[in-house]
């Protein structure tokens, strides 16, 4: 039976670790790249083929990291050929045996060349996601990025020349020393490049990052809360005024260019994660692959399972997760889907929370959906707390 599902592929290599990053990605591990791609291809041949057999072809494929675009040309080509063979993706960009497929690869603007982008496109990749973060060179340096603002602009030109008509760019606001004027410059520069999709995040200080250490030593000078709030207001009014509708707390798109892969995470769609540290959500169970690159490679070589079951979620946790994830989207919680999945109406479980949040102006009902208001998106945490059972 054909079913909607997605594939995530993790490439854990980066040229340099950005100071704010706590993703499972590593600098200085190039020696593992070739063995890693071998292992990934083997995992794909077994797990990918298994789920393709069960559910048909995936609707979306997303290759993230890390920095997929630092893989050497030959290794990326080998990986893409395997993907095409296992999932039946044709060379005509974006076709999955006649079905449109969303196939995204994350790229660092400092690590791409025209021939590389052309090769991605020729192997069916039809969406690129560039980690731009800011166009200000001094800020880029301050956060540990390897590219420049000019390279980000050039990356967009190269993407268009290679044939990509669906490009996403990421921005971060609230960076050390950033001002309103700098954010406005970033937003203006970004829309002058006309990406189809923009993801924008407030800087978070994550444990174990270089920034967290600097903060503990009093060496990190971040904009204060009021300034960050003003930046949030600037970006949430600026982007819709320039044709980008907000379809999720941190994501904006031109009409029809919402990321189908990301939407599936928020809409309870299953996905298979391949590669070290990749997460999967299959038949109601969440899994995480072995994180350490060398152990992942060894595990695959010796035929051992590298996928660990996360603790089975209780019914209450599953309901909370369902609500939290759906509430991130502009569409919100689908009441019919909730009732079908849990056999009980949403109001029966969350009636008091819904009433309270509506009174506070954080939430609103719209036919079969309940969703956060603009005010609710800004103060999402207060709303999410009410959904804890
Ligand atoms: S390039 Fe991306 S994944 Fe790699 S360290 Fe920087 S933020 Fe993290």
Structural class: alpha/beta
Helicity, as a percent range: 40-55%
Major beta sheet summary: 9 strands, mixed
Q: Categorize the overall geometry.
A: globular
Count of all domains? 2
- Count of DSSP H/I helices: 15
Given as residue ranges, the uncertain stretches (5+ residues, pLDDT < 50) are none
> What is the CATH domain class of the largest domain?
Alpha Beta
First-residue to last-residue Cα separation: 35 Å
The value of Rg in angstroms is 21 Å
Q: Strand order, biggest sheet?
A: 11-12-10-9-8-7-4-1-13
What proportion of the residues form beta strands (DSSP E)? 15-25%
Total count of strands? 19
What does it look like?
By secondary structure, the protein is of the alpha/beta class. The chain has two domains: 6-266, TIM Barrel (Alpha-Beta Barrel); 315-386, Winged helix-like DNA-binding domain superfamily/Winged helix DNA-binding domain (Arc Repressor Mutant, subunit A, Orthogonal Bundle), CATH 1.10.10. It contains 15 helices and 19 strands. It has helices at residues 33-55, 73-87, 114-122, 137-142, 149-161, 180-193, 210-216, 225-241, 260-266, 293-301, 315-327, 335-342, 346-359, 374-378, 380-386, and strands spanning 6-11, 13-14, 26-27, 60-65, 95-96, 99-100, 102-107, 127-133, 167-173, 197-202, 245-248, 251-253, 271-274, 279-282, 285-289, 307-309, 333-334, 363-366, 369-372. A hairpin with a 2-residue loop joins strand 18 and strand 19 (369-372). The protein is globular, with a radius of gyration of 21 Å. 42% of the residues are buried. Bound molecules: iron/sulfur cluster. Iron/sulfur cluster (SF4) binds next to loops.
